[in-house]
Amino acid sequence: MLKKIIVRIVIIALPLVTLYAYFLMESEANSRKEHPTDVGLGIAIMLFFILTVLVIGFSIDLIKRLHKKHYKVAFIDLSFLSLFILPILYINCQMGGCCDDFCNGYINFMNRVF
């Protein structure tokens, strides 16, 4: 069971650490420019797509685990999915979202919590 948790953490950590290293390189290069640009927006878009791919992958794994009746592993997948949903919804709402009432309430809630 511990091995399955560690494998999932490594699967999550590799793209996020790579994105963080890329962000550090780009922000350093951006600070040396005469006219700096907005690096953060590009990183936020990339983070949104990375998390979306991870959610799709973990959802597929969750369905497979439930079908095979591996409920303990499915619970691990479900807990990781619940952690991914928060930043995905936040980024989606910041970029336009779908429902103004939901997004306004969600953004206000996240601003109060964090």
How is the topology of this model organized?
Blueprint: H1 2-31, H2 39-67, H3 71-94, H4 100-113
Helix pairs in contact: 1-2, 2-3, 3-4
Keywords, separated by commas or semicolons:
mainly alpha, 114 residues, 4 helices
Mean pLDDT: 88
Q: How far is the N terminus from the C terminus?
A: 32 Å
Strand content: under 5%
Q: How many alpha or pi helices?
A: 4
Major sheet details: none
Give the helices and strands as they follow along the chain: HHHH
Which runs of at least 5 residues are low in confidence (pLDDT < 50)? none
Instruction: Indicate the overall shape.
Output: flat
User: What is the rounded Rg?
Assistant: 17 Å
- Domains (count): 1
Structural class by secondary-structure content = mainly alpha
Number of strands: 0
Tell me the helix content: over 70%
Short description:
The protein has 114 residues and is mainly alpha-helical. It contains four helices and no strands.
Description:
This protein is mostly helical and 114 residues long. The protein has one domain. Helices cover 85% and strands 0% of the residues. It contains four helices and no strands. The radius of gyration is 17 Å and the shape is flat. The model has no long low-confidence stretch (mean pLDDT 88).
